[in-house]
Queue: 3 jobs
Job 1
Amino acid sequence: MDIQQYMTTIGVQAREASRHIARADTRAKNNALNTLANAIRRDSSALLEANQRDLESARAAGLESAMIDRLTLTEKSVAAMADGVDQVATLPDPVGEITDLKFRPSGIQVGRMRVPLGVIGIIYEARPNVTADAAALCLKSGNAAILRGGSEAIHCNRAIAALVQEALAAVGLPPHAVQVVDTTDRAAVGQLITMREYVDVIVPRGGKGLIARLLAESRVPMIQHLDGNCHVYLDDEADTAMSVRIVENAKTQRYGTCNTTESLLVARSRAAELLPPVAAMLAGKGVEIRGCAETREWAKSAVPASEEDFATEFLAPVISVKVVAGLDEAIAHINRYGSHHTDTIVTENYSKALRFLREVDSASVMVNASTRFADGFEYGLGAEIGISTDKIHARGPVGLEGLTSQKWVVLGTGQVRQ
Amino acid sequence: MDIQQYMTTIGVQAREASRHIARADTRAKNNALNTLANAIRRDSSALLEANQRDLESARAAGLESAMIDRLTLTEKSVAAMADGVDQVATLPDPVGEITDLKFRPSGIQVGRMRVPLGVIGIIYEARPNVTADAAALCLKSGNAAILRGGSEAIHCNRAIAALVQEALAAVGLPPHAVQVVDTTDRAAVGQLITMREYVDVIVPRGGKGLIARLLAESRVPMIQHLDGNCHVYLDDEADTAMSVRIVENAKTQRYGTCNTTESLLVARSRAAELLPPVAAMLAGKGVEIRGCAETREWAKSAVPASEEDFATEFLAPVISVKVVAGLDEAIAHINRYGSHHTDTIVTENYSKALRFLREVDSASVMVNASTRFADGFEYGLGAEIGISTDKIHARGPVGLEGLTSQKWVVLGTGQVRQ
């Protein structure tokens, strides 16, 4: 197979389909989504069989168990996949929304209209549910999608792609509006991230290594999501019970998510009071504490933290802990060692809460809430295609709106410029 | 001079200064702007002398007259530069604005806060007024700026940079918040557009050639502005007098601007009626018409248009004209040959006006108004740093808001995720 030619064909088809899907009405898009959800339910066992084939190859290839977990579909997860697609149909359609129409002194009325980005390339690991999920979000936001999932999920992705194209055709929308790259050749990714003519934005979903590599080579704008090294800062006016509760939830509710807290900062004046109960709670949950020298005075179970530990996303029952002089040092530490993802302060002090919100340079900044809330569903976006740690275009959880941009509309009655 | 080391130093300084300028209050930023405006007025003759030195070298180097024009400062243009800076001070400060704070079922309140992008690199031709203008916009939006103007304006840019830094220092803001790249070595640009660690976005202002070259090499996101191949479409329900008035203004008010109309489309059913008066008006203004065969039946002075003419930004008294079957062909033509900048329809028909607004894929889409309105001042942005023909982040005229992004803020009272 000539990969360059294959990807160009996909690109041309996507661009052409994007013009149709961009002007599809809400009803047609929702019909396609409901049809897809029903087709997923109908073909549940066929999807599980395709998944079985993928799993056999993956086991034969000796894939590690975490990857096998992500690759595995069950009856329950297939049902959840279908429900997720139906749920996207219930979200408001962002396309065509006109806002801020205002008259100008010249007599023209100027506003903005929300429009799809065009063609979105999504690159992800071997997680079949992402195929349905990403297809649904792109479709609802009026974009054409080119999906490139991990090659270990190829059979399953192919089967889901067939259902998506069946659903599009059933409601009269162009089947090329959602295409799955049907080759395991890695060169396809290299093509996808450099086809500026055919792809408007790349959304990478997956590990830090994958994204860093794509970022280095991409010629297409990217809604990037690097690591989530999130912080909780316990201020000197923090409530003790709330501190323990928020650290517990932020660190231990789930270890593998990007909004999990990886580093704890504690104001010096309260270290003696706050660290013992926090350390006891963490120890009770089996979380290893890697602490600075002062931390280790109050948390006896802690081992010494290295400089590197403060810059690490553990994704495991490990937390780095540092005692800081106060708010200034906390903010400086977070802006230096953090990953600009999500950080929270626990405090009862109004001015310090405001300063933390303003000065911490992260996609989500919080007061008295667990970092685990940084999520499209929790924020009310309905769904998310990813969490951006970038500053351009979209920051933090990216929902349907993040897959659109705004153009200017001018309504005149014959005005000309003076 | 070691350019890599020099640019890295500038980058490190800009990043450091960006943290301070990001949290500067509105009063300090406005004070700095008014101080700068007054310093420009005070040193008007010194600036004119520096400009004289640039002009002498430029003439000796045989620079073409259009470039000499853009390089030339006069007492009037220096005064306008100062007024422009004062005017930026009067604009609302976008930084810190919190919008859409809403309670979620979990009890947290979620909203967005507008924040600076960080460090903005601006690359422009030898136009000294851009130095003051870009410095003012970056400063007001809380960003640090690295300015790289055309080397022919180096003396003048250096003089303006000194005034900017004086003004920053006078109000206690970090002088490195605005730095001018003080070398004419082109390698500096290559560094600037690849220093991802220190530069958050590049704004190129200048010719198509410059931008295409930067785009090919940049590793930093860019608010790009390629060409402006703008269209007027005279629909079969267009008012005749309005058609002539809008084409006249859109094509002939100024020939060299990016929002000038370069191509005219006319509905076939009205060609016999609309083309003669439009052609007569254009002929009277000395505008050359390059038309399709049908156009030439009704506009006898027209010469044949080539395929290439329809894709060309003339920036001159030349217009391409094509007779089309109707709205569908007009939209398809604009989306194919246009540059996604600004396009307008003249029509009295409601449904066709709506379809044009929705389906033309351009940064600005208009009904019954001149394309010349596509401008930050006319749109009410107060000022513009450029006009984006890109879709990501900012589209169309980019004002202060386009130099910011939004982060999420979460206000809790101790909530944890279930």
Job 2
Amino acid sequence: MTPDAAYKALETRFKRMNLVYDAIAMLDWDAAAMMPDGGANARADQVATLKVIAHEQATDPAMAELFDQAKPADPWAQANLREMRRGWLHATAVPGDLVEAKSKAVSECEMRWRTARKENDFKGLLPYLRRVLDLTKEVATIKAEKLGRTKYDALLDEYEPGGSSAEIDAIFDDLAKFLPDFTRAVLERQAAQAPALPLEGPFPAATQKQLAHDLMASVGFDFEHGRLDTSHHPFCGGVPDDVRLTTRWDEKDFAKGLMGVLHETGHAMYELGLPQTWRNQPVGFARGMSVHESQSLLVEMQASRSDAFLRYLAPKAAAAFGKSGPAWTPENFARVYRRVSRGLIRVDADEVTYPAHVILRYRLERALIEDRMDLADLPGAWNEQMRELVGIVPPDDRDGCLQDIHWPGGSWGYFPTYTLGAMTAAQLYAAAKQADPTIEPSISKGDFKPLMAWLRANVHALGSSLSASELLTRATGKKLDAAVFKAHLKTRYLDG
Amino acid sequence: MTPDAAYKALETRFKRMNLVYDAIAMLDWDAAAMMPDGGANARADQVATLKVIAHEQATDPAMAELFDQAKPADPWAQANLREMRRGWLHATAVPGDLVEAKSKAVSECEMRWRTARKENDFKGLLPYLRRVLDLTKEVATIKAEKLGRTKYDALLDEYEPGGSSAEIDAIFDDLAKFLPDFTRAVLERQAAQAPALPLEGPFPAATQKQLAHDLMASVGFDFEHGRLDTSHHPFCGGVPDDVRLTTRWDEKDFAKGLMGVLHETGHAMYELGLPQTWRNQPVGFARGMSVHESQSLLVEMQASRSDAFLRYLAPKAAAAFGKSGPAWTPENFARVYRRVSRGLIRVDADEVTYPAHVILRYRLERALIEDRMDLADLPGAWNEQMRELVGIVPPDDRDGCLQDIHWPGGSWGYFPTYTLGAMTAAQLYAAAKQADPTIEPSISKGDFKPLMAWLRANVHALGSSLSASELLTRATGKKLDAAVFKAHLKTRYLDG
């Protein structure tokens, strides 16, 4: 087989495999947004079968030879080959019986976790979580060997291709030093100011939905290529040509849900903007979790909580719900949307304290993977880090180390991508505004087109052709720099 | 491999293949009910890939040996093996290049048909339809050889397993003799009676939907295992544990759509009632198109247009829409729902004239498949049969031989199942009422439980363990008998 034919054969195989994953994505959306409860077992069987089929395609022995022979000349094809190889390595590195054992341990641990969290029972969860951790370490050891990385970095690579804990350490240590004093200063300043006036409902779901639709359209969401529906946990699913957003409507509070929709719309814009010519090829995929999260946080945190956008949003929301008065001003919206508090729960955390929650998890999961800590010591270590980083201590494990599903679910190495994403968002938004001064004035009129044009050219349309670090350097002139994120926080929370 | 192991291996393979088809069924439902237009290309790629995967599973060379070795002892397993073999034969009989050529010809012909119908252009369609017919005849010739049947029966077998045109001829010739005089008598009687009073709207879609939900629940539809949504063409999709019905709402006319929902609910009850222990095995599937259509028509035509049900429906519909007066009586509902007229269009035909439309198509498609007629002569032959069987002649081909998508779509041998289903429905309903005299009194109170209990035991739970003919004989004491259907028509349209 010629090098060109070998490469083409790989493209054909990856297209086919990725179309199976696309089908799974649609079925997963349906399970969350449409499926009646009684369909769950049948659906689990369907998805499990499709996963086995895709895995068999990935592990077909013929692949190794194709990888040996393929030598494309085109730079995008070369990048595609590199991404194919990375995906293939993750899919084939670990023997099938270990994959199965971990999958089984995760299922059992997740189920146990639901009860353990409710009952504040870390001890009851411990043996299940230890089993998941042990198997994850086995996976890490094997992948570390094959990838030539440390164990933690080998896990990280699945979510953050090419990510390095040495680099994350430097950035997170910088932030960890900065955050405690900064948070104290923000809280003091906030206490000295007028409190946010409550936005009083009720807010009918249908009105919220119409408002969300309008704002999604303002951001640029293409309803010819996607939908908005309701599910218990909001997410952005589907495939790039058919993006399925979900949210839920709280009739007592529209403000949080609305930002949730804008967050998911940021994810959606990334998917919708991926390079059309590389659909279903690895180089056409989103770059990784930190870049993906940067796109949601860029829309939600950077753009939609900016003064510019709140000037547009406040009167629009007031009109939609038929409200008026001092609570419905841009200034009060800013107080509502920028309220900072020391909380126990990561998913409820604000922009300032969120990174502290993430740094804590990153440090602990690394210590556990690298055998520098025993799992039985997790609750104590958690509370200690909470005191240091967030400034409060959980009264129990329910709102402490039992709060997240990631570790019981087998996702180790995922947490840092949240804060890497927040920092990437700040850096991209600053560069975008500098490159195109019409961006913020447009956003103040509800028009995201200039922002999205810049993101399309500098992020979305690049797919996975560059590493996250290369992409950021190309777009902003430098690697990820904590100083930009810190400057953003200072401007918004101390100077604003 | 032991005979038992070979059979188990087949079960595993068929389960896996059928789960892929289940995934396709869910994606098809989504495409009709949920998908934005821009998702169509991506969806076509997903479904095409899953179909290729399922086809590769079916045509795996290892299957032949497993079929040679498998010898299960259990009667259901034996029936399962028989059905596996039948499905495998249909899947593997025809060489891949012929399957592909037909699939391509069908795509082109369907596309051309949409224009040709609009423009009343049979001549323009002719070369495309001839290509589909020629390839269908090639398929028929190959399958006839492998199945040991005539060419037409080999095509019929795909929709009506074991169906025989010799038996259909006898039944249809009987009906064809009966219908012209009977139709004339019904029309004369109808002309002498008071005409149906119009049910005047508007009928808000939300109210129609609530009413449809209530009636589906009355029939026994389990919303824990299914949904009702909107699509352009109503259908019953999904899988037995998660049945997805669709309909559309006409705010000027609720009556037709409501019967459409009841029709699809009949299909759904069959799927929901298939044997739970044989999910994803061929013996656990519905028995074929005529039995499936019998279940929809049993609910729609036999039960829901009975005097008993209309006594329940008329006041319920009046209350739902806030209506009253002489149009909203059971007697007027009966006139609305039993109006007979000679029409040109099959899908708009009433219970009395529908079989004539089907017999016409059956006779013509057989003549075409058996080379007793040239395709160029179709319009003339169509009009001649319309005159003889329905009693009117189409003014053009648009409302004549161009009206159905079946032939351009490559579905030859499908048409007779509609009327076989109608007759089977009449025979099953008569036997059910005789076996359980509480059935009709219950239906007059909107309670379908006794009827569904009988159908569950005598039809649904049998899956494909028996042939359609064996199933009917077991349930009613005799093979399909046109006399029962004729008696039903006489009772309803001349004596009632």
Job 3
Amino acid sequence: MQQVAIIGIGSTEVNEHWEYSLRELAGFAALAAMEDAEVSHVDGMFVGNMMSGTANRQQHLGAYLSDWIGMPMIEGVRIESACSSGSAAFRAALISVASGELDTALVIGVEKMTDVTASEISTELSTAADADWESDQGVSFVGLNALLMQRYMHEYGWQKADFANFALNAHANGAGNPKARFQRAITMEQYEKATMIAPPINIMDASPVSDGAAAVVITSTDVANSLRKHPIVSIIGSAASTDSITVHGRKDPLWLTAAYESAKVAYGQAGISPSEIDFFELHDAFSIMSALSLEACGFAERGKGPRLALDGDIYPSGRIPIATRGGLKARGHPVGATGVYQIVEAAEQLRGEAGKNQIENARIGMTQNIGGSGSNVITHIFSNL
Amino acid sequence: MQQVAIIGIGSTEVNEHWEYSLRELAGFAALAAMEDAEVSHVDGMFVGNMMSGTANRQQHLGAYLSDWIGMPMIEGVRIESACSSGSAAFRAALISVASGELDTALVIGVEKMTDVTASEISTELSTAADADWESDQGVSFVGLNALLMQRYMHEYGWQKADFANFALNAHANGAGNPKARFQRAITMEQYEKATMIAPPINIMDASPVSDGAAAVVITSTDVANSLRKHPIVSIIGSAASTDSITVHGRKDPLWLTAAYESAKVAYGQAGISPSEIDFFELHDAFSIMSALSLEACGFAERGKGPRLALDGDIYPSGRIPIATRGGLKARGHPVGATGVYQIVEAAEQLRGEAGKNQIENARIGMTQNIGGSGSNVITHIFSNL
């Protein structure tokens, strides 16, 4: 297979976009990415989206969006793997281009969650868990993550305040990102006094329901090199793994096997170890997921994830900066778009275009997108070398 | 890219499966395909499904089903492109194996439509059309196809009875398929007296809401040859194209441009012309779609599709047999599963395992799966040579 590179990126601000439809948001991101790549045509479109069928009464986004952006004759599909839909769409596009089946591909991640009530969104999010054995028993995603966090604190002896820096770091970084949902830093006091949702998870441990769209254009690295418009952002690792869809179905619910597996394969492809990663856009849908993801990917020992937050290792100047543009917590979590936002942000860092959030000398970045409570994990590694 | 072959096939009867869940149906088909292929493990799973999020309150089928069939660590995603979801999943799997990214892949098409009311299913089907410009104006899929058929009859001078043989052929073939939803032939009188749904479409022009699951296992032709369990079924053409999602957005609504484009590319890959196709599993969701598909793929001149039905060219002994195991009309149309059923049936024909439906000396077969009213068309060509 041939090496593939990102040649165009685009995204909308993450917000409650009352004034725009799903189609418009996706179009803004897609056309921005194509303009950035300076291409007027692509050979295929891969759309990451989870809930447009219910939240927007519109499925069939491949045909819908290729039509909308004026390329009705290209190949177009939607890929869904819950909260990891965006990265799954990117990976499908990557394989199509790496294999030579397509020369260029457009990946769009889009989610428009605020057209329906919060209760409807909560129901829709629960379709990522097992309907029979989880959702129908009344457990929500916040509930599942609360159980995990509770157990983690009990098992490894952490206090709730030990997780605070995950939220503080995300919000501090979000303040530097003009496209973030929340562009303000928060204090320890705000974290401690935040509204409790499902103990021990308070509103500062959870990512917000949001609208947004992000897009990238990819082509072979050879073609990308011939264009030389931006510093090359090469994809040097890509892997996906599933795990038991239920939390109770796992031998050790506090170890993200799918994250470990997909990271291990991606490290192998890139020929690097965790210590060579300059920044990590992880899936901080909940604070506990940040800790588990850091451990599974080899940045912390088992049960020691919060140590990286407490010591400031996750800060922009730290050993392994995470959520550099605000992460799911502060940039926002428009579900099917999130994985593509992570990739756009990684490309921004590697192109030196991350503004106030720029990580100095960033050369290798990793993204990890998680579907369900760890049941579908997709890891990518990028390089500007 | 390496050549890829089908090494295992499996499917459930198409029916109203009150006694089985979506998970069970998918599992039956998947495990049957793996048993047929004599493999106990695959590297990735691609699930074609349109409406499980609403009809079964369950999304995230990649993780859900890999878990269910006992392979929780493999890659798993769901692909959705309305009624062409099954073929879209097959094509994604095909590219993953052809590129060498995966050695073996499992494709599952599954739809469980009878857990909710007919009205809910009708609403759900309408999410394949444009929400703003079609569905919200009250037009259903039957309505869109009725408009097309009406216009076609007016434009080219056909009578309603001229379409009868599409239904009669499908039902006659369904009678020979123990997995078909309707296993009985119908008469001209039954066709003419059938309940009208949306003039000129009566109930014998329309495919039935159904439950079912179909699955295939694919690997490289080199590996398949080394196994030599069945006659080799090679994939010699694969192409996809979109078109304007709305019917009114097309210059000529009576010409399926996406079907023409995807067939043209597939013929080119296979190095053949339409006359070399021994049978054609087309997307006869409605009789009018059969006529339009035959024309777009070069089997009839524009406006002459019904001639092939009237002359019996579409019969098992005819020039271009279609719907050989009943088609969408009589085998049934479990939406996201349909494309995979078509592929399973093509493999049965090419392996000489089609029983009473066997087409003599079948060597090259084609499948065409259509999403929306012609807005997403995926064509595959298979060979046993």
